[in-house]
Amino acid sequence: MKINVILITYNHANYIRQTLESILMQRTDHEVEIIVADDCSPDNTVEIIKEYENKTSFTFTYLQKEQNVGYNKNYQQAFAACTGDYIAIM
User: Fold this and answer.
1) How many helices and strands, by DSSP H and E, does the chain display?
2) Is the pTM of this model over 0.90?
């Protein structure tokens, strides 16, 4: 079974560590993929997220954007990227 965790972000550098810690503390034998849908944050949100990749067996998939697409479009793209049996939204 595969679980997708959708992580929608925009300028969350001040809070993203707490969010990631809460995701990574989950224990499961299932495959977990974190879908990072950052909407072109001008802060260092994505760099902070990348720091966590080596701290877990969960995989990270980044949805690259060339410009800000807005809240709704960002969610739509994140859901479209999911291939898991279950989806959790952060």
Assistant:
1) 3, 4
2) yes
